[in-house]
Design goal:
47% of the residues lie in helices and 13% in strands. The chain has 245 residues and is of the alpha/beta class. It has a single domain, classed as Rossmann fold (3-Layer(aba) Sandwich). It has a 7-stranded parallel beta sheet with strand order 3-2-1-4-5-6-7, with helices on both faces. Strand 2, helix 2 and strand 3 form a beta-alpha-beta unit. Helix 1 crosses helix 6 and helix 3 packs parallel to helix 4. It is globular and about 50 Å long. The structure holds NADP nicotinamide-adenine-dinucleotide phosphate. NADP nicotinamide-adenine-dinucleotide phosphate binds next to helix 1 and strand 2.
Length: 245
């Protein structure tokens, strides 16, 4: 894929994998737009990356998603790539939790509803524009293939993102739209507010994603996620036991 003249809308670009990819896409000469809930993180990114466009936006809310797409296409009508990266990960005991349903619904909305809705909104725009080569990139997880039981809703949303991305790719075969899935393994970020220091170093991981994007891989996996995304059912069951003890 040509990774020098894209105009990219990347959700959750203020930190972690999203910020690392935004930095690399920016350095490669692409126009980059990012969103997130935390204005300070977005501002810090904008100060370091000249020309970066930012919007404070909560992708859990459908009207906010519509506002995001209106803003992005107004700011950059040539928008060519949607990178659905924003995500949260919550530890939940489904039997013992006394959280209100809204807390779980919010996790599902950020991780699953947002990429589905934002994809549909962009596809409509690109169809109307007769765009010659747009790209949708969804970020799933190795845990979408092998659930980590202590993050059950997260794991389920990531399995659904993988499933949706497969269907999307099939439906859009023969259209100009490319559909790519990034399947991270554990990466050292602040995801879930838990210690992810056991994960792959962020810079090493983001460099690999950029190389695989440039090489045109439709599924971008690494380490653990490369293993489980190709595993047989027997191997997946063994990985589940190993992961969950
Ligand atoms: N790190 C890993 O081990 C790992 C493994 C597999 C998959 N992933 C996936 O990789 C993606 C990035 O995660 P990360 O590890 O980089 O975690 P991170 O550092 O916590 O980044 C997540 C980003 O999403 C944004 N975000 C969260 N909720 C949002 C909302 N409602 N609206 C807009 N933005 C929102 C956050 O910004 P604000 O807080 O400012 O909103 C943040 O910038 C996620 O989809 C995650 O599931 C990560």
């Amino acid at each position: 894929m040509n990774l020098t003249q894209q105009t990219v809308l990347l959700t959750g670009g203020g930190s972690g994998i999203g910020l690392a990819l935004a930095e690399r896409l920016h350095a490669a000469g692409n126009t980059v737009l990012i969103c997130g809930r935390d204005a300070a993180k977005l501002q810090a990114a904008a100060e370091r990356l000249p020309g970066l466009r930012t919007l404070v936006c909560d992708v859990a809310q459908a009207p906010e998603r519509e506002r995001l797409i209106d803003w992005a296409f107004a700011a950059a009508p040539q928008l060519s790539m949607l990178l659905n990266n924003a995500g949260i990960q919550r530890t939940v005991n489904v039997f013992e939790t006394e959280e209100p349903w809204a807390t779980t619904a919010n996790e599902i909305a950020i991780n699953l509803e947002a990429p589905v809705h934002l994809t549909m909104l962009c596809l409509r725009r690109w169809h109307a524009q007769q765009h010659s080569g747009p790209v949708v990139i969804n970020v799933s997880s190795g845990l979408g293939f092998v659930p980590l039981a202590r993050v059950p809703v997260y794991s389920a949303t990531k399995a659904a993102v993988h499933s949706f991305t497969q269907s999307l790719r099939h439906q859009l075969a023969g259209s100009p739209v490319q559909v790519i899935e990034i399947i991270p393994p554990a990466v050292h970020t602040e995801l879930g507010g838990t210690d992810h220091s056991f994960g792959v170093p962020l810079a090493e991981y983001a460099d690999d994603v950029m190389q695989q994007l440039a090489a045109g891989h439709p599924e971008i996996a690494y380490g653990f996620s490369a293993k489980v995304s190709q595993a047989s059912r027997t191997e997946l069951d063994a990985s589940f036991k190993q992961l969950n003890g």
